[in-house]
């Protein structure tokens, strides 16, 4: 048990002898979201009162909420010494609850007191909570639970006649001749229906925040009894932006009035739009307290960049959260095998550069100068490993200076040019961009087929190793950004030649395919994300040249029809083959292709 949880458990034990919790109360578990439970309300970012205060024998019992923090606290006023206030928190819709959270008693000659703040929801643990303030003042009373209904575009229990479209994401299920269907619409709302039945049949939705493993606060939603041969529920949301829960899944269930008792469809996530659906599924794996996608450091930078490219304002908070939680220092093992030394620097030079590009994207998205300052700081760090003593230039892959490779060269070129293009009056980064572009083109990394091999030998020759899609993409993106910086048309021409070579040389039956996608091969955690990175930079080139639209459209169509499951999880093999690999890295990669095709 961690210290915070131990403290909460001890508090509950101490006060348990002083105040009996109502029936249904249970031991508390510490929750950390943007902050951990038991935070002083003086740090609250806002104060709102979404439920009415209660008059408890002349005392004012109030629930205070800060949505920007995702936390709440309770207060009692007009009281006397010994009056108490605390919070209850439920994870199952109010059937049971953690009681006595932050219990405080009015001391001395005071007339009021307040609790500490507690988290309402637990996105990292995929749980949606309810909170209420309770008090004991010559009797026990509580406010209403806060946010019992989920609200997104519409709120829970909206009439299904307001649905925007009708998609059935999974096959219907049958039950003694009845047909039970799950429906979703373009707003991400869901409802259930039963057909070909009779009076007394029932139909409802189940909703889960942990991909169908449990559904304690979402069972039997909108349960309705048929009076004729059919019935349908009202609408229910599958995303809770207030609680930062974006990846809810639903299923339709029913019970026949006669015969076999019940049946449910498969679980599904709505797909209001391709990229939005993929982004919701990616956000399922984001852990907001540490502010990253555990447990891959550079992959988190690439996933964040893709999420920024998607451009949904619901996720803008993730940018600042990731920045603030990760710009410090971390020991080896906390964010990867290497220590992180502050400002996203580590011995892996390419890892640092990935974060530099993420903060360039963040600056472009928000206009916040702190992101450009960080990108420039990282670019300075990477530039420190530019070395003309070996191969006439190029950036070393690692601090030990063991390898000059395509990924670090492409990252540096893109980052140097990006910093110049966003820094008024700059000349230093412009000079570095020209030097890096010239070196890249003459380095030998690009082979005779205009494909980029992995790196150089110690005697500075192309090593003939695997042509990875992300190296091809970074070369395209680096040369394109360098063209923007310098106006040199030869760089844009070469970016086009590299793209043309990839479209034919890195595909199978028109679908982008990594070498580790073939046969029974598997891709490691790095390789899982390569194709999405290629897609980002090809899309950037397409925006300049007007070409490659058909190619990007084909990738998105193949992903959507062949590499996606009912929860909108995207696999490694975009052509849809087995065995496949599915995790947040493959999800970020697929999202990159869907964004590219918009």
UniProtKB/TrEMBL annotation:
UniProt keyword annotation of Signal present: yes
InterPro entries on file: 6-hairpin_glycosidase_sf (IPR008928), Glyco_hydro_76 (IPR005198), MUG_Protein (IPR053169)
Domain of life of the organism encoding this protein: Bacteria
Keywords, comma-separated and alphabetical: Signal
Residues annotated as signal peptide: 1-27
Name this protein carries in UniProt: Glycosyl hydrolase family 76
Organism listed in the record: Amycolatopsis magusensis
Lineage: Bacteria, Bacillati, Actinomycetota, Actinomycetes, Pseudonocardiales
